[in-house]
Fold:
Amino acid sequence: MKNLSNIGTIKDILSRHGFSFSKKLGQNFLVNPSVCPRMAELSGAGEGVGVIEIGPGIGVLTQELCAVADKVIAVEIDTRLVPVLDETLEGFDNFKLINDDVMELDLNELIEREFNGMKVVVCANLPYYITSPVIMKLLEDKLPIEAITVMVQKEAAERICAEVGTRAGGAVTVAVNYYSEPELLFKVSAGSFMPAPKVDSAVIRLNVYKKPKYVLTDEEKFFKIIKAAFSQRRKTAANSISSTLGLEKSEVISALEDCSISPTARAENLTMDDFVKLAERL
Structure:
């Protein structure tokens, strides 16, 4: 197994394959040797478990996952990395690379085809620019997965793992909490990457609910109300929802009062139960 935490080894491999980092794809490869084994361990990967990895880069996390999981499917959009991964993952017969855009894939079909009924987890070092879209796709597709363990920008991690109903939370906080129980596992300094980004990162784990924790008549409406409520954070939830969704302000205030929510409350003051009740009322 190649030492993919060694900068010299990485430069040699990338040079031989004529690879250069893409800012557009947010490519920053991990070089801190302690991070990936810890991520693999905390992800739930192990005997009888299949793993989906998104954006494997040169395969530093992939190697650790392949060492403990029964099967690892990595999805990589960058065609230039295909020959690199063929080299770095050589010898792992439980690894398969899919050169595609994860946002375009039918992941339910992939899981059914590739994992043959085994438990499945997601583990990935996500590019900053696509963090929220990927996380929401994984949750909204209602995949048969146990957990999602990902490294993201520290600020994003803190927002996602904030408590709903606090100033630190946002629309993504509410959305993630609807589908899962998030937890911040550990922080990772910018110097752990090559090239080093300008901000620190953190690893989070989303423990996906096997059954919906909240029962809604209309999920789509629920998420529209969340997005509308946080669209103008400095305004009251009543003002944001009414102006964004084109509803009469008096109608929204009446709904808030019926749900025992103050008409002057901002979105950040509302709990999960508040949002569920409000969506049902509206």
